[in-house]
Amino acid sequence: MPDGNMTAPDHFDRAQFTAMQDGTAEDYAKIQAHDREFAKHSVDRVLSHLNLLAGDHGGFRIDRLTHSLQSATLAHRDGADEELVVCALLHDIGDTLGCFNHADIAAAILKPFVSEKNLWIIENHGIFQGYYFFQHLGLDRDMREQYRGHPYFQACADFCAKYDQNAFDPNYDTMPLEAFEPMVRRLMSRPKRSIYMKPARQAAE
Q: Which class for 52: exposed (0-12), middle (13-18), buried (19 or more C-beta within 10 A)?
């Protein structure tokens, strides 16, 4: 006979619909409760994914994780604010999944937590970084000029110049991931925006 102390099967704590249009308030309350618990561990998943960059040199002198750490170290030692340091740390986190659009993946992860300026920097750093090497691949190194006049053009150019294109030094005293983990946790503890929030202009109306 079943043990009387057995907990209810897991499916009893799940929504019962098979199409979202048929869900009830009770169903979505269950889902929201699970979402809140799942979100508590989002930083752990982000850091685990960042660690996937370890050991992959991609032809460079240092692996992709060390490049990310070195980029963040340069930003931190330059006096950049914590948000930009975390952006530097995570700017290439999409390398393992988005070989052709890695910047988009990093931007999607950071979007709920960063300013419009820092989001634009991460979204566009790939093209701005091309200023330093596109000419060797038969591409136009000045591709970034299409954004000339944008209010964040110089900020993105500076990010690449100071924290990205020069972060490939195997002899640099790069800070460990543990030094940046508290920064990531603070930044990602509360989103500034989400798809469920009205844009600021709409909310004010």
A: middle
φ, ψ of residue 129 in degrees (nearest 5): -65, -30
Q: Give the confidence band of 61 by pLDDT, cuts at 50, 70, 90.
A: very high
Whole-number CA gyration radius for the chain: 21
Residue 104 to residue 92: CA distance in whole angstroms: 10
Give the whole-angstrom CA distance, residue 112 versus residue 195.
Answer: 9
For position 173, what pLDDT does the model report? Answer: 98
Question: What is the C-alpha separation between 161 and 140, in angstroms, rounded?
Answer: 18
**Structural domains of the chain ordered from first start:** 42-187 (1.10.3210.10)
> Which amino acid does the sequence have at 54?
A
Long-range pairs for 95-98: beta carbons < 8 A, 24 or more residues apart: 95/53, 95/56, 95/58, 95/64, 96/49, 96/52, 96/53, 96/56
In the structure encoding, which two tokens stand for residue 164, read together? Answer: 């990205």
Q: Count of alpha carbons within 13 Å of 115, Cβ hemisphere only?
A: 10
Question: If you average pLDDT over every residue of the chain, what do you get?
Answer: 89
Question: For residues 94 and 104, is the Cβ–Cβ distance under 8 A?
Answer: yes
CA–CA gap between residue 13 and residue 32 (Å, rounded) = 12
Give 64: exposed, middle or buried? Use CB within 10 Å, 0-12, 13-18, 19+. buried
